[in-house]
């Protein structure tokens, strides 16, 4: 057990971590640990960023409101404290970073489970997102949630770029654009142009989960039978127009293990469920924004498939639906 992580747990959870039961043996990662008092918790370690504070606030409010998710317990707080530099091995085992610049948070361990779209229908997925939006604090009451997560950061300020600046050259879609079907950057360009128009900028922003899809959820078996849903990945809270949040998840909620694209029928059912749950249908503008956001994220995901193992289900889904999604977006 890493001594810095054990000491962090002592400071913030009241007992040291004594055993790791899942997770990679590196500091920038997610660890399942058992504390000396017997509790099992999940500890997340990553580079500190101001937006993590607001993510934690939204996570806590939604947990108290009954959204099925782990209970946040502590953090974000620095892995190490004090005035002296504490160098540790960062993600991937290569970089050396100051542990005071790593943020740690902890939440309850909710058990193992499976990532599945079922047993919820598309409309039920949409209704659950609408419930999150309704429960979340007003954006103006939160610390910053900027910049947005990369896949929703179409409003970046790099004028020479289509996709937002990457964390490293390795993950830059621009370096592999010549290997893509030209339709992928074309969809991204047209969808982004629609999302940057003044009518979208004038829409109020709301806070909610920005990566609400099946692969970030688990259906966990229960001792008495049945199973319950647990929603993870609360570092992905964002502040965006409501229709953009809904359109993003309507496109990608079907992703169970790999990136996937919903059918247009699934997409429409998700948005209908969202609209019914909030008690108000989508306006013509919101309909366009939802599909523009979905098209942008689908293109972003397809580009990233080319950076990883090559084109897959995400690319195929986008290419099959691009014309219809862009038409619906008014792009």
Question: What is the SS-derived class?
Answer: alpha+beta
**Beta-strand level of the residues, as a percent range?**
15-25%
CATH topology of the largest domain: Aminoglycoside 3'-phosphotransferase, Chain: A, domain 2
Give me the CATH superfamily of the largest domain.
Answer: Aminoglycoside phosphotransferase (APH), C-terminal lobe
How many DSSP E strands?
A: 11
Largest sheet: 5 strands, antiparallel
Overall pLDDT: 94
Characterise this structure:
The protein is of the alpha+beta class and 331 residues long. It has 2 domains: 3-108, Phosphorylase Kinase, domain 1, CATH 3.30.200; 122-329, Aminoglycoside 3'-phosphotransferase, Chain: A, domain 2 (Alpha-Beta Complex). 37% of the residues lie in helices and 18% in strands. The protein contains 9 helices and 11 strands. The protein has a 5-stranded antiparallel sheet. A hairpin with a 5-residue loop joins strand 9 and strand 10. The longest helix is centred in the C-terminal third of the chain and has 24 residues, at 284-307. The protein is globular, with a radius of gyration of 20 Å.
């Amino acid at each position: 057990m890493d001594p810095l992580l054990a000491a962090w747990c002592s400071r913030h959870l009241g007992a040291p971590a004594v055993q790791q039961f899942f997770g990679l043996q590196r500091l920038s990662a997610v660890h399942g640990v058992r504390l000396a008092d017997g509790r099992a918790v999940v500890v997340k370690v990553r580079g500190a960023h101001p937006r993590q504070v607001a993510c934690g606030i939204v996570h806590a409010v939604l947990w108290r409101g009954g959204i099925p998710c782990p209970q946040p317990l502590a953090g974000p707080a620095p892995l190490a404290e004090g005035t002296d530099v504490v160098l540790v091995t960062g993600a991937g085992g290569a970089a050396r970073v100051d542990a005071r610049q790593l943020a740690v948070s902890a939440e309850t361990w909710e058990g193992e489970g499976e990532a599945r779209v079922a047993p919820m229908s598309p409309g039920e997925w949409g209704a659950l997102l609408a419930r999150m939006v309704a429960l979340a604090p007003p954006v103006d009451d939160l610390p910053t949630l900027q910049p947005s997560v990369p896949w929703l950061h179409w409003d970046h300020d790099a004028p020479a770029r289509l996709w937002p600046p990457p964390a490293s050259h390795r993950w830059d879609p621009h370096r592999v654009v010549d290997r893509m079907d030209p339709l992928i950057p074309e969809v991204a360009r047209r969808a982004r142009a629609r999302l940057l128009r003044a009518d979208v900028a004038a829409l109020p922003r709301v806070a909610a989960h920005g990566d609400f899809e099946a692969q970030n959820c688990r259906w966990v078996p229960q001792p008495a039978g049945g199973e319950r849903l647990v929603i993870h990945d609360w570092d992905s809270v964002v502040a965006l127009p409501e229709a953009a949040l809904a359109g993003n998840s309507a496109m990608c909620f079907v992703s169970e293990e790999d990136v996937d694209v919903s059918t247009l029928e699934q997409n429409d059912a998700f948005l209908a469920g969202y609209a019914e749950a909030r008690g108000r249908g989508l306006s013509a503008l919101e309909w366009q924004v939802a599909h523009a956001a979905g098209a942008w994220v689908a293109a972003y995901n397809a580009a990233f498939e080319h950076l990883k193992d090559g084109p897959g289900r995400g690319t195929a889904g986008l290419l099959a639906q691009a014309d219809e999604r862009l038409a619906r977006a008014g792009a």
